[in-house]
């Protein structure tokens, strides 16, 4: 489903798995080239040590690369399947403050993914995310591996972009 940046921001803000973990989408960047996210430390996501529960942090980083790639390629005419294939997380220190992260996709990353979708029908790549407090102190490092499948790819067809790009 294609959505505007603003509509998707509000939908994600009130999506129960994010809302109840206090994960707040601040904004999607123009043309879904990025996203800014805040994790609010609250009674709903504090652990035994009064820091943000690790599962909340992990959940916050889960959907966004897939959403960005999905929205970008839908606008290019692709019918695709995008999901988080794997993830690694390294907790640097307990998060006793709100955390923030920004994801940005470069034109080079998008072009590389599109090339693979056209030539191979799929693309798998790893992307790093770092989470900071408002003062710039690093708390968490995450690596997400994203899987994108071009559902219209057929090895028997000549290699060509979606019909909307011809």
Automatic annotation (TrEMBL):
Highest taxon listed in the record's lineage: Bacteria
One Pfam family this sequence matches: DUF4442
SUPFAM superfamilies: Thioesterase/thiol ester dehydrase-isomerase
Record-given protein name: Uncharacterized protein DUF4442
Organism name: Albibacterium bauzanense
């Amino acid at each position: 489903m294609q959505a505007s940046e603003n509509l998707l921001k509000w939908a994600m803000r009130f999506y129960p798995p994010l809302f109840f973990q206090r994960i707040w989408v601040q904004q999607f960047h123009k043309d879904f080239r990025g996203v800014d996210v805040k994790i609010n430390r609250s009674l709903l996501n504090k652990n035994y040590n009064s820091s943000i529960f690790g599962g909340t942090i992990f959940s916050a980083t889960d959907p966004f690369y897939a959403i960005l790639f999905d929205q970008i390629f839908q606008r290019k005419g692709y019918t695709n399947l995008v999901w988080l294939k794997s993830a690694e997380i390294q907790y640097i220190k307990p998060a006793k403050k709100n955390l923030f992260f920004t994801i940005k996709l470069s034109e080079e990353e998008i072009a590389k993914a599109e090339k693979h979708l056209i030539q191979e029908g799929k693309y798998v790549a790893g992307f790093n995310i770092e989470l900071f407090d408002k003062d710039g102190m690093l708390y968490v490092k995450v690596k997400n591996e994203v899987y994108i499948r071009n559902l219209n790819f057929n090895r028997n067809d000549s290699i060509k972009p979606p019909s909307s790009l011809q």
